[in-house]
Amino acid sequence: MSEITRGQGRRNAKLASLPLGMAGRAVGGVGKRLTGKSKDEVSAEMMGKTAEQLFSVLGELKGGAMKVGQALSIMEAAIPDEYGEPFREALTKLQAEAPPMPTATVHRVLDQQLGTKWRERFASFDDQPAAAASIGQVHRAVWADGRPVAVKVQYPGADHALRADLKTLRRVSGLIQKLSPGTDVKGMVDELIDRTDDELDYIAEADNQRAFAAAFDGDPDFVIPKVVASAPKVVVSEWIEGTRLSRLITDGTREQRNDAALKMTTFEFSSPARVGLLHGDPHPGNFFILDDGRFGVLDFGAVGRYPNGLPPHTGEILALARDQKYDELRELMVQTGFIQRAYADRVTSADLAKYLQPYIDPLYTDTFHFTRKWLQRAAGKATDVTGDVYKTSRNLNVPKEYVMVFRVLLGCVGIAAQLDAEAPYRAIMYEWVPGIDEQAG
Predict the structure, then answer these.
(1) Is the pTM of this model over 0.70?
(2) Are residues 35 and 137 in the same domain?
(3) Under a CB-based contact definition with an 8 Å cutoff, are residues 133 and 98 in contact?
């Protein structure tokens, strides 16, 4: 039995504690209201403690819990300032940290995946992990031909842990939704469940990475590490050295942050046209800025397959929202399955305007300044679970082929706000999202 599997009972207990903790705080909140505290004071205090517990639990676990935490971390900038600071650091840590595997376990996996003579394929191998994430960790090494390489090794038992965590998290997705304004958490968890096998298959991930590396080979702005060797639970690829986007968020110059937002958004939305694939895991831990200014990208386990480019109605939906043609927009969203006909009367034109605000505000100017305060206003107050944005998200049904597209869109917006960046978002969208500029004046 693996290290992860042995702890599954403890993991389930931790995840189950989330809704119980929320219920306990709700009862306590009633008592505080009776002692004279205002509704806003009690609500902010409750949600602050709930968020702190949530991200503390997600941060301690591998598998699906940490993966959901990483996906939520891209919307960290939308968390209201009045109670965001206490767990902002914990959120950022989710992007690249997890407890490491014992050295003996790493060697055992390499024996199984690369053969017992795997050491002969390397000039050197560092037993201490250079980075750790949700279902695997990365070791620095030197290939036999002298190339510095990254060796990504999957945790034993990660398959069982990932599936179990995601099933549990689906049951508490309503609670997580309250802490992540504007994000369709249930849709995100469902998508992660659908893609579980892809995430666990490092052979498929290596093939995806090879496709991206070939398409962007020689590009002056982007670098994708070439794959050196792969197995079902190990990927060896060229090592890239640079500054993580998470470091630029806190320490980068304005010029660096603006350039990073520009290149991140360009990479994400040019990829379906250039590769036929969409990189589906945008968070700062997967992006680097190299010393020569190129934008480096890692982690190709989660990809959307769009051989003909982005789904055809993506641009049309954004264009109709931008042009405030809400009647046409509602009808299109009903026709395409975003709104089920039986529930169409629950979503008004005004609801759609507020819900799509983070996507369309940047389309009105040549350059847009993404800030935390703007995103907080656009996404809605996380404490207001009866508000329009939250209710709209509960009544929308994002078709599967669009879930990753809109999650990546929102992810780029969320990271740009963390960067406090100014970027020519409109020009990027007009160039790479078909249909969005057809009605532009």
Answers:
(1) yes
(2) no
(3) yes
